[in-house]
Amino acid sequence: MRAKKSSSLISPAGIIKLMTHAMMGAALGLAFGLALIMSNPAVANLLNNGGSQTVLVFALTLVTTFTIGATLTGVVFIIVEDKES
After folding, report:
1. Under a CB-based contact definition with an 8 Å cutoff, are residues 81 and 21 in contact?
2. What 3-state DSSP class applies to 71?
3. Ramachandran area for residue 51 (φ above 0: left; ψ -120 to 50: alpha; else beta)
4. With the CA atoms of 11, 14, 19 and 22 taken in that order, what torsion angle do they form, in degrees rounded to the nearest 10?
5. Can you give the residue range of the structural domain that contains 74?
6. 47 contact partners, CB below 8 Å, separation of at least 6
7. Cα atoms in the 13 Å half-sphere on the side-chain side of 19
8. Residue 3 falls within a domain, yes or no?
9. TM spans, by residue (predicted)?
10. Tell me, what's the pLDDT at 7?
């Protein structure tokens, strides 16, 4: 009979994996924001005329959205990987 091993999501390695996914999501959010500003002059104009608060809200919204999505995807990947082994 096999001993039941603990979930790797709760282990220190699982936390590091989740943090890695979150950082990848934040980087993707920033890259997407930059691509959006470069490809759409209307967005660049809005950010230019909106002030520093507008830029901050724009960046934080994109980064937070992508970070949450990447972290949730990382949770799914870790759970599936755990079930396969």
Report:
1. no
2. helix
3. left
4. -140
5. 12-84
6. 37, 54, 55, 58
7. 7
8. no
9. 54-80
10. 66
Tokens of 73: 């995807």
> Rounded to whole angstroms, how far apart are CA atoms 12 and 6?
12
d(Cα 12, Cα 66) in Å, to the nearest integer? Answer: 23
Number of domains the chain is built from: 1
Tokens of 8: 């790797």
Helix (H) or strand (E) run with residue 35 in it: helix 12-39
Both structure tokens of 76: 């799914």
pLDDT tens for the chain, 85 residues: list them. Answer: 455 555 677 888 889 999 999 999 999 999 999 999 999 999 999 999 998 899 999 999 999 999 999 999 999 999 998 888 7
Domain membership flag for residue 4: no
